Amino acid sequence: MTFVIGAACVDVLDRACVDECPVDCIFEGNRMAYIQPDECTQCGACEPACPVEAIYYIDDMPAGQEEFIAENARFFAETLPGRDAPLGHPGGASAVGPIGVDTVFVQQFQP
């Protein structure tokens, strides 16, 4: 995993990063967006596109937001509430569309 979306995205979901991503690896949950860690190519195009500066290179994640590293990976690896199976590696966000659910942590997160 190279880039991660943090707390500032919760309840914002601007889509600028989604539109900017050349490999289509940013997926929309209900309250925030998530980067598919295995599909991200480390190009960094999403980071400056984010109007709330919620995207960080993994090594630059601010203190206190480390849980978002796990949550970005968990969004794809575990079965989310209301879904039958993990999202996994769907091969692009545009083919799947908005997922409409979040990890339990993000569902309960209070900004």
Low-confidence stretches: none
Largest sheet: 2 strands, antiparallel
> Number of helical runs?
5
Helix content: 25-40%
Order of helices and strands: EHEEHEHHH
Alpha-beta classification = alpha+beta
The overall pLDDT, averaged over residues, is 94
Main-sheet strand order equals 1-4
Query: N-to-C terminal Cα separation, in Å?
Result: 24 Å
Explain how this protein is built:
By secondary structure, this protein is of the alpha+beta class. It has helices at residues 16-20, 46-49, 67-77, 93-96, 104-108; strands at residues 3-5, 26-28, 33-35, 55-57. It is globular, with a radius of gyration of 12 Å.
Concise description?
This protein is of the alpha+beta class and 111 residues long. It contains 5 helices and 4 strands; from the N terminus they run βαββαβααα.
Features:
single chain, 111 residues, alpha+beta, 5 helices, 26% helix, 11% strand
Give me the secondary-structure topology:
Elements: E1 3-5, H1 16-20, E2 26-28, E3 33-35, H2 46-49, E4 55-57, H3 67-77, H4 93-96, H5 104-108
Antiparallel strand pairs: 1-4, 2-3
